[in-house]
Design a protein that fits this description.
Keywords: Methyltransferase, Transferase. This protein has helices spanning 51-60, 69-78, 96-103, 115-121, 160-170, 191-201, 209-218, 233-253, 258-267; strands at 2-4, 40-42, 86-90, 107-112, 129-132, 145-150, 171-182, 221-229, 275-282. With 285 residues, the protein is an alpha/beta fold. A seven-stranded mixed β-sheet has the order 5-4-3-6-7-9-8, with helices on both faces. A two-stranded antiparallel ribbon has the order 1-2. The chain is globular.
């Protein structure tokens, strides 16, 4: 199977390093400046492609589980109209969520350090461009993207504030940042579960909404809206229990609970929770 990645010669994108490509992957210069050219995919005849196949592969893959769909779906909805816009998913794993942006007409890039996840992402149809790179040193120039997204990634970084600074740097003025993070506002009530969660998923730091608002403001972004998920004490304990003891398989097995948790969130105050979602906009200079 041949995959061709096309990259425009622009100060915004041309610095990218496409390390995760398969043998035969090529870079081709494109006319124009400042725009990412669509990636073309050539599949063999009879190849089973489509949304259902993508979902099956993603759920069998790395980071996607059923309970995360509401979280990522909310972030993508907050990003607004995506047709024709450039989107970067930071620490996006196999590119599944960035692929949702592609299906909405975006020209999307998924960046991750884990080569195994990126290689798995090559199996998805309608996927974004896949880049092996570091969130603390994004290989793109300032103002390269209209939208930057990151789904529960910042808590795993050694230096989350520096990662936010990089996201802000590559976002154009007026562009949208949509992100989520582990908040776990009541984690001190279940220290053993919290410790297992942190060890299992290499969580370096949790972030409340107020903390992120401050960090983003210092980096030139104004928060437009925020919300918590798994708001009640019972829901937050469920989150930690599934995370610490069940892993991805446990989350998928708990899929029937997703609408119950969503209904519970609507009934509880929006000031606590396991995960915080943020939509911020980069201020004009």
């Amino acid at each position: 199977m041949l995959f061709t990645w096309r990259l425009c010669c622009s100060p915004g994108i041309a610095g990218a390093t496409w390390r995760a490509g398969p043998p035969g992957a090529v870079r081709r210069p494109c006319p124009g400046r400042g725009r990412l050219s669509p990636m073309t995919r050539v599949a063999p005849k009879g190849s089973p492609v489509g949304p259902l196949r993508d979902q099956a592969l993603a759920y069998a893959g790395h980071q996607v589980h059923v309970m995360r769909r509401r979280e990522a779906g909310t972030l993508l909805a907050w990003a607004g109209e995506l047709a024709g816009r450039t989107v970067l998913d930071v620490a996006g794993g196999d590119g599944y969520w960035a692929g949702r942006a592609v299906r909405r007409g975006a020209r999307a890039v998924c960046l991750d350090l884990a080569r195994g996840k990126l290689e798995f992402g090559r199996r998805l149809h309608g996927r974004p461009a896949l880049v092996e790179g570091d969130a603390l040193a994004l290989p793109f120039a300032e103002g390269s993207f209209d939208v930057v997204m990151s789904v529960c990634a910042i808590e795993h970084f050694d230096d989350g504030p520096s990662a936010l600074a990089e996201m802000a740097r590559v976002l154009r003025p007026g562009g949208d940042l949509v992100m989520s993070a582990d908040a776990l506002t009541r984690a001190d009530q279940w220290p053993d579960l919290f410790a297992r969660h942190r060890e299992r998923y290499h969580v370096k730091q949790t972030y409340t909404g107020d903390h992120l608002v401050k960090l983003l403001d210092e980096r030139g972004l104004t928060v437009v809206r925020q919300t918590y998920m798994f708001r009640s004490r019972r829901a937050e304990r469920l989150y930690l229990t599934l995370s610490a003891k069940g892993g991805r398989a446990g989350w998928n097995a708990a899929a029937p609970l997703s609408p119950i948790v969503a209904r519970s969130d609507r009934r509880n105050p929006d000031g606590h929770g396991s995960v915080v979602l943020i939509h911020a906009r980069k201020r004009q200079p």
